[in-house]
Amino acid sequence: MSQQLLAAATWQRIQRFSCDKPTPCLIFDLPTLREKYAELEGAFPFADIYYAVKANPDADIIRCLDALGANFDIASIYELQKLRGLNIDSARISYGNTIKKATDIAFAYEQGVRLFASDCESDIRKLAKFAPGSRVCVRVLTEGSETADWPLSRKFGCQRDMAIELILLARELGLEPYGISFHVGSQQRDISSWDAAIAKVHFIFDQLREAGIALKMVNMGGGMPANYKQRSQDLQTYGRAIARFLEEDFGDSPPQVIIEPGRSLVAEAGVLVSEVVQVSYKSHDSLDRWVYLDVGLFGGLIEALGEAIQYPVLWELDSDGEDEVILAGPTCDSMDILYEDHRYQLPVNLQEGDRLYWLSTGAYTTSYSSVEFNGIPPLRSYILDAP
Ligand SMILES: Cc1ncc(COP(=O)(O)O)c(C=O)c1O
Q1: DSSP calls for 295-309
Q2: Which atom of ligand 1 sits closest to the CA of residue 96?
Q3: pLDDT recorded at residue 219
Q4: Helix (H) or strand (E) holding 188
Q5: What is the Cα–Cα distance from 92 to 78, expressed in whole angstroms?
Q6: Are strands 115-118 and 71-74 parallel, antiparallel or unpaired?
């Protein structure tokens, strides 16, 4: 089968490298990551990049992005410890998770982190007590959940009026009210989601200026897409549109902008290599061909939950034609079905032991894979660099 998402040389390098490796495993290609970083930098020249470590926390990926000059967005003190262990300066770290224990905040502060996101009064009070004087971005709710393949703006963020109150409270408690953050949902297909979000941010900036607070930063989170089975608009188009939205609202005095890309940076650099464990039918006259793989929802493909993310798949065998399948994982959990409504077309002669290559799996796979469900170890990954 032909591949379109990976350069031919990259695909060959990955095939060559993985041929004697036990499956399942993720092969992550650093040259592709460097290309994606350059693409994002080119598309968003008006923004500082803070890599969302949760997307793939591999130390080699962090080192590579560090060398490229990236900053980092963290979700926990464990990610912070990892970054500090790799000598990343805390001045280049933003603590983006709005859900934090007091002890997490105290640890981050002690490590030198001074930029935090928040979305409720109790967190602002904890920040004032355990990270005094720190910069705070208040996260607002945004629209766009229906058009994001992996929605995020319901659990996090607060309404506009509450965001204004929280910024005022932050000032009162001695924190530095620094900006407004949002995340329009991961793999956001509708670029106009950023338009509405930026307009909301602008309104808050205006209101607070009247209260004597000059906010400085817009943290636009992630949401920029990767290419999956369904292609997405390119990053240049996203960057151009978002720049226009910013200009329409803020004119020639733009705020400092940061973006926190996860998926759009690392997804396309990863190929998950899997093997067919079994092919079966539930009755002699059934048309449903069940293909069970050695990777499933719990082994790294959790974003197939609800069939939300649909990865492109490749194979090597000479196909005698293709027909639809139901794809499922290997564990003893009946929830571990990857794709049933959306029918992948796979070779009719696909057999046990054949390999399937899942493209665009560099994001949210290794970091999500379970520790020992059914005794299966976490998804192993190998990092490849150019020879
Ligand atoms: C605060 C924050 N920033 C950035 C990201 C990365 O988003 P994406 O992978 O869509 O780029 C996430 C994803 O969960 C997030 O929660």
Answers
A1: --GGGT-GGGGGG-S
A2: 1
A3: 98
A4: strand 186-188
A5: 16
A6: unpaired
Nearest residue (by CA) to ligand 1, atom 3, is 221
Are the C-beta atoms of 111 and 83 separated by less than 8 Å?
no
53 C-alpha to center of ligand 1: Å? 9
Is residue 263 within 6 Å of ligand 1 at its C-beta? yes
* 225 ligand 1 Cβ < 6 A: no
Cα gap 353→150, rounded to integer Å: 32
The whole-model pTM stands at 0.97
pLDDT higher than threshold 70 for residue 4 = no
CA-based torsion, 106, 111, 113, 117: positive or negative: negative
Which of 152, 194, 265 best tests ligand 1's pocket when mutated (most atoms within 8 Å of CB)?
152
User: By C-alpha distance, which of 312, 319, 384 is closest to 4?
Assistant: 312
Site to substitute for ligand 1 among 71, 260, 360, 361, most atoms within 8 A of C-beta: 260
Question: How far does the centroid of ligand 1 lie from the alpha carbon of residue 163, in Å?
Answer: 20
Superfamily of 31-265 according to CATH = Alanine racemase (3.20.20.10)
Same fold? 31-265, 268-384: no
* Ligand 1 pocket, residue 235 CB under 6 Å: no
Distance 161 CA to ligand 1 centre (A): 24
Rg (CA), the chain: 22
Among candidates 108, 69, 109, which has minimal Cα distance to 92?
Answer: 69
The dotted CATH code for 268-384 is: 2.40.37.10
Domain positions in the chain:
31-265, 268-384
By C-alpha distance, which of 26, 1, 94 is closest to 269?
26
The pLDDT tens digits of the residues spanning 213-241 come to 999 999 999 999 999 999 899 999 999 99
User: Phi first, then psi: what are they for 7, rounded to 5°?
Assistant: -60, 145
Backbone angles phi, psi at 50, to 5 degrees: -115, 105
